[in-house]
Amino acid sequence: MTSFEIKPESVIADEQSLRKLFSETHELAVQKQQGALDAHAQAFIRRSPFICIGTQNLVGQADVSPRGDPVGFVKILDKHTLAIPDRPGNNRLDSLVNILENPRVGLLFIIPGFDDTLRVNGHGVLVTDPDVLEGMTVNGRPPKLAIMVKVDEVFLHCAKAFRRAQLWNPEHFQNRSDMPSLIKMILDQSSGAPSDATEQRKLDDDLEEDYKRTLY
């Protein structure tokens, strides 16, 4: 694949040039932004089993990480404060290290079957308060820490993106077997996957067993 070159004349370099491409922001889109978690936002969060959290380090390198757990896993401590349990993962700690360097975080709350989403922006801090962590225990295991988010902005996001993607429509679901397994793709990208099909199946089975052992 040849390297793609961006045409300099096609680059949007300032906000004025950007806004010329679009119509005026609808007044309701401005008014919907809230500074705290109202009853509707809290109800949305309590129904959500899945979020994406966006972070950046000091030099602006960005990361988006998925977080999932039983419905309502993100705890509402008050109308300005959320707590997100940190479950076992790959120990890269990308989001956590970013928060230590730059506390600004963005959250996207998703509910299966809902096309609309909830966006929350704020400041994150990593906490080990036992009173907070104990309320996040699953299968007898509390998290090692939680990401506490002080809320700055809250607003509901419209359904257009999810409807364009047909995200919840079973007719648009793709067959996972059309692509290699996760472990095979990672090995292809790193040390190399085994050519023997039996050995590959064992690696796939081992990964599934690891999921069962280390979800919490």
UniProtKB/TrEMBL annotation:
Q: Where does the Pyridoxamine 5'-phosphate oxidase N-terminal domain lie?
A: 38-158
Q: Coiled-coil segments, which residues?
A: none
- Its name, as the record gives it, is Pyridoxamine 5'-phosphate oxidase family protein
Q: Name the lineage.
A: Bacteria, Pseudomonadati, Pseudomonadota, Alphaproteobacteria, Hyphomicrobiales
